[in-house]
Amino acid sequence: MPTATAVPAIRCTGLHKRYKDVVAVSGLDLEVRAGECFGLLGPNGAGKTTTVEMLEGLVPPDGGDIQVLGMRWGHDEHALRERLGVALQETRLADRLKVAEVIRLFRSFYRRGRTVEQVLEVVELGEKRDAWVEKLSGGQRQRLAIACALVGDPDMLFLDEPTTGLDPQSRRQLWDVVAAFKRQGGTVVLTTHYMEEAERLCDRVAVMDHGRVIALGTPRELIASLGAEEVVEFALRDGAPAPAEAVLAALPGVKAVRRDGPRYVLTVSEVHRAVPGLLGELQRRDVEMTELVTHHATLEDLFLSLTGRHLRDE
Amino acid sequence: MSAVGSDSPLWQLTLARFREQLRQPEVLFWVFAFPLLLAVALGLAFRNRPPEVTRVGIEAGPGADSLAALLGAGRGIQATVLPASRAAEQLRKGGIALVIVPGEPIVYRYDSTRAESRTARLVADDALQRALGRTDVRRVADQRVMQKGSRYIDFLIPGLLGLNLMGTGMWGMGYAVVDARKRRLIKRLLASPMRRSEYLLSFIAARLVMLGPEVALLLGFGALVFGVPFRGSVLTLAALVLIGAMCFAGLGLLTASRARTVEMVSGLMNLIMLPMWVLSGVFFSSSNFPAAMQPLIKALPLTALNDALRAVILDGASLAAVAGPTAVCAAWGAVAFAVALKIFRWL
Fold first, then answer.
1. How far is B17 from chain A (nearest CA, A)?
2. What is the pTM of this model?
3. pLDDT at position B5, please?
């Protein structure tokens, strides 16, 4: 489809939304390309949910313009809804309806779509088709929510924190469903505060904080923007004389130094040169280390370097 | 695909609503079992009984035993000689209705605000005077009747039907809507191409399906167990029940139109329903209230519905004959629906 690449799946400019005295979204511009998986990454309260619900036409923005699939809310609402699949955050779809009954209910709203059987297979809930929703596990409920979003055979899927609170296995199961949808050419917009989810699923990520986008790009680009690909974290024994940040920054291979509570976080380009340099420096000062960790830089590190805060409050 | 048929949204929404209700035992209890239990309990408590024995106490003293002998000859009187303190205590506790103090004159001691005491005084005095030789000046005869349709249970059953229509209508709409709003189901549905009108219509449709069994069960039970008559036409009753059910469905939707929590809507509904439980002539006639309150009471939807239901069920009234109260009901429903739709909080 040549036009699919020409018309962006979503284009919004200057989005604003405030709730009483809280500004939820302030001046947001986004463009989501057809066929990509676009992630909104940010901590709780960053404005992710308000943003997607405005894009879904469920929350009216105070200002700004939204185009979805080349259409606008208010003009083409019904036609638009036929083509979108939505899974909201924390929705209890039913208690005492069976899985297949809920999907069939949602199927009835769409003029065209997939069969209940097809969708059950996609989300691997075939065995649970006759189970009451209240008896499902958290992961199964989320898969049911996605089944309801998929049953209208949408061009675009909105998922608001689809894996929050799920165990790793359920999370991976859900990722498979999303990846399969994308492989068939679907566009996905998802919010998450799991950097791993964003890195695994998303072609592009907008990092949000306080209602605005503070970084945008592919996960690889964003991490590369740190200027280094590895992170060294260490902590010193209580009361040990702290070395000056300038001293640490001067060590070979170190690009940046940050304090994160009691820990030091070094962004480095070459671990094999930075770590021996660090150990030598601390030994020379006779300071004891209590912890040393190195890992590949992640979006979490990017967020930390941009805001000084973590994505999730631990 | 088609507007009707097993895969139309309205059908599926109604089915979902209906299934969720049927799968909740507590809903079934309140809709079907509760009114029957209420009918049985009240039917037993206020059943028509043969006249009771009048219990009187005679204060011990000179002449007490001869008084007891005179009274004992009278039918339906049980006279006991008691020491003064015991007699006072029994009178206080309701064990006896009247204390007779022998002497000249004979003194009747009783609480004149208690109906049974007033009766006891009349019965005891009559028996005593008769035993002492008084004769009737005019011949009288008793004719006892016990007519179906004028007993307490006959009054009660139509009232319970009205009460039930109010309860199921208000809870069935109000609670369900707010629950769906609170768990973000309404929001999720609105994210699909579902039409809002079909969502609301499904509630009404599910309500209508429940209505038939609900009414048939209570009236059938009343007829079979208590012999409550049904003198009206089934069609008139159906029309009336429909109007009543829609009236309270509208009020239920109105209470639910803004509420965000189940607690809030429950409080609101109780606030609306409790006064009608008392005022609207469910358990006792609303004519017991002062005349000044009557216009207000008559304007309440449950009073109107109960009046109309009684007229149709017990007196066989036509719809035209109950046009007044029916119009009151319909007006409440129409206004409630109009306002509810205007202020409804969808998101």
1. 9
2. 0.81
3. 61
